[in-house]
């Protein structure tokens, strides 16, 4: 998929997300509309690159568990070297398909995991919150690595 086609798919997805369409339904519609066979993970990565999406609105569990936000104290972060580094663990972690570590370009570090249903998560986040650009770079780098581009 080239950059132009990726942009077209993301515009299509943004419209569907704004209508409240689930990612699994978006996967079916993207594959039908663009005659592709994208996996759920690929759809999630493309969706992560779409600006202005309120992901909490698309997650009923998060909405149900929503707690009042408490302002976190400001932490003097040590900036990163401007590059996101993703590593895939050779050790099997119980309950997940694949896992590893990430050092975000802005400095924070975390453990990441991908479960059998394609859900991506972060654990043990240290050094502050990653920026939206950090998360986008992480997901792109992880996709590249999982596709065999190590």
End-to-end Cα distance, whole Å, is: 19 Å
Mean pLDDT: 78
**Uncertain segments:** 70-80
> How would you write the strand order of the largest sheet?
1-2-3-4
* E-strand count: 4
Query: Given the C-alpha coordinates, what overall shape results?
Result: globular
**Integer-rounded radius of gyration:** 16 Å
Topology:
Elements: H1 3-18, H2 23-34, H3 40-48, H4 60-65, E1 85-88, E2 98-103, E3 109-114, E4 120-126, H5 132-146
Antiparallel strand pairs: 1-2, 2-3, 3-4
Helix pairs in contact: 1-2, 2-3, 3-5
Q: What's the short version?
A:
39% of the residues lie in helices and 15% in strands.
Please tell me about this protein's structure.
- The two termini are 19 Å apart.
- It is built from five helices and four strands.
- It is globular.
- It has a four-stranded antiparallel β-sheet with strand order 1-2-3-4, covered by helices on one side.
- The protein has 150 residues and is an alpha+beta fold.
- Helix 1 crosses helix 2 (23-34), helix 2 (23-34) crosses helix 3 (40-48) and helix 3 packs antiparallel against helix 5 (132-146).
């Amino acid at each position: 998929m080239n950059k132009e086609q990726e942009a077209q798919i993301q515009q299509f997805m943004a419209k569907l997300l704004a209508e409240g369409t689930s990612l699994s339904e978006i996967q079916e519609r993207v594959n039908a509309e663009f005659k592709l066979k994208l996996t759920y993970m690929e759809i999630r990565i493309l969706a992560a690159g779409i600006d202005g999406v309120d992901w909490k609105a698309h997650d009923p569990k998060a909405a149900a568990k929503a707690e009042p936000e408490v302002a976190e104290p400001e932490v003097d972060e040590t900036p990163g070297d401007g590059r996101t580094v993703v590593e895939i663990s050779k050790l099997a972690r119980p309950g997940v398909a694949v896992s590893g570590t990430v050092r975000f370009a802005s400095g924070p570090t975390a453990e990441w995991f991908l479960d059998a249903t394609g859900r991506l998560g972060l654990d043990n986040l240290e050094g502050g919150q990653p920026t939206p650009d950090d998360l986008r770079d992480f997901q792109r780098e992880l996709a590249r690595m999982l596709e065999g581009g190590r």
